[in-house]
Amino acid sequence: MQAPPLAALAGGAWASHRPAILAAPASLRRPRRGALRLPAWRAAGGGRAPRLPAKGAVLASDTGADEEVAGPSPLLDVRSGQEFVLRVRKEVERGKLRPDVADNFENLYYNYKNAVLQNGDPNAYQIMLSNMMDLFDRVLLDEENPFTFQPYHKAIREPFDYYTFGQNYIRPLVDFRNSYVGNISVFSDMEKQLRQTEADPAVIALSLERSNPWISENIVYVAGDRVLTDPLCKPFSMGRNLLCVYSKKHMNDFPELIEMKRRANTRSLKEMALLLRGGSHIIWIAPSGGRDRPDPLTGEWHPAPFDASAVDNMRRLLEHSGVPGHIYPLSLLCYEIMPPPQQIEKEIGEQRVISFHGVGLSVAEEIKYGDVTAQSRNADEARGTFSEALYNSVVDQYNVLKSAIFRDRGAVSSNPAISLSQPWG
């Protein structure tokens, strides 16, 4: 019997690029548990990732085939942050790294260092430097042999584990003492609906890796082209299951590319339909169409309004999948870790501001289309009513998370509909 596909309609302010998301089942690999000290971090496969030629790096050809590219790391002898920055600049002189990428990378290094050093771990500096060296290795390899994402990209777990790399990079930025998950039992219900006969962004995976590791590792992100082309984002994207699309917000940035982008999105939509028809998939879509930003007048963060047509398109895809589908409202709060720019930018390669902070993730009970639209007079009204019901649930969850994390109320912010917990504690 096929397990049903699930849809989680997401809102809230995201730490990084905010895509719509799908999750597909894969072989189970249990992720790391909790924050690790440096020796355990490395023993578990974190920290300095394999750089021996036998390991190599996974790159994609134009046909999507994987190949190994071997070669020693230029960073094996780096022992300090100063040496690291000098080595980055040296790669520019050697012609191995574009100057603009190097500038953004150096900016990222200082931001990441300042954030990680706030977490209180006595080994924070070594962990920070190790993670930045791992990222620089990945960036250099991609500069030499650019990775091309196919419409449906499966997370690269070997010979280099990009998923674990991403987890280890974000983990020291999360203040788990001030982080919460809402309605952990609903996540467990979702997992049970999916896992019958079949086997980020990182904040979601870190929040669920102890209580719901299958969901943590098997989400498929519907990723916009910016996270697939930005040199500093690509290594993290390579470690996630992705459906690759062009964002509506950037569709008209370059008029000569509009038709190509539309054709590419059509291919990705077909891939999504195939995944849904296969069952055992969890869909997470951000119906606002991008990352949330603060109100320009008040500076307050809040979930951006949902696009009712995007919600309805997702619902109809589920209805036509041939297996029962379920839709859940989900909220994620983590903008303090890596907020987006204040304005939507046209060019790739934004500056990154990073901090150490608590995060929140919550899901509410399934919302059924027939239940909330029974009194609607026509299809248009029903579409708006359903979208509004999902959005209101997301906002309610977001406000509870905000109260717990930013007003220091912790788990007492829970209410009868939203129960907060710390499943990693």
Automatic annotation (TrEMBL):
Hydrolase among the record's keywords?
Answer: no
Pathway assigned in UniProt:
Lipid metabolism; Phospholipid metabolism; CDP-diacylglycerol biosynthesis; CDP-diacylglycerol from sn-glycerol 3-phosphate: step 1/3
- Where does this one sit in the cell? Plastid, Chloroplast stroma
Q: Where is the Glycerol-3-phosphate O-acyltransferase alpha-helical bundle N-terminal domain?
A: 74-147
GO cellular component terms, semicolon-separated? chloroplast stroma
Any keyword Transferase?
A: yes
- Specify the domain of life of the species encoding this protein: Eukaryota
What catalytic reaction does the record list?
A: sn-glycerol 3-phosphate + an acyl-CoA = a 1-acyl-sn-glycero-3-phosphate + CoA
Q: Where are its TM segments located? A: none
Per its UniProt record, what InterPro entries does this chain match? G3P_O-acylTrfase_chlp, G3P_O-acylTrfase_N, GPAT_N_sf, Plipid/glycerol_acylTrfase
Q: Which GO terms describe its molecular function?
A: glycerol-3-phosphate O-acyltransferase activity
Q: Name one GO biological process term.
A: phosphatidylglycerol biosynthetic process
Xref: Gene3D superfamilies: Glycerol-3-phosphate (1)-acyltransferase, Glycerol-3-phosphate acyltransferase, alpha helical bundle, N-terminal
Which species is listed as the source? Triticum turgidum subsp. durum
Q: Specify the Phospholipid/glycerol acyltransferase domain's residue ranges.
A: 196-331
Specify the protein name.
Glycerol-3-phosphate acyltransferase, chloroplastic
* Enzyme Commission code(s) on record: 2.3.1.15
Q: Which leading EC class covers this enzyme? A: transferase
> Per UniProt, which keywords does this protein have?
Acyltransferase, Chloroplast, Lipid biosynthesis, Lipid metabolism, Phospholipid biosynthesis, Phospholipid metabolism, Plastid, Transferase, Transit peptide
Which positions are tagged coiled coil? Answer: none
Q: Which family is this protein grouped under?
A: Belongs to the GPAT/DAPAT family.
Q: What does this protein do?
A: Esterifies acyl-group from acyl-ACP to the sn-1 position of glycerol-3-phosphate. The enzyme from chilling-resistant plants discriminates against non-fluid palmitic acid and selects oleic acid whereas the enzyme from sensitive plants accepts both fatty acids.
Name the principal localization, coarsely classed: plastid
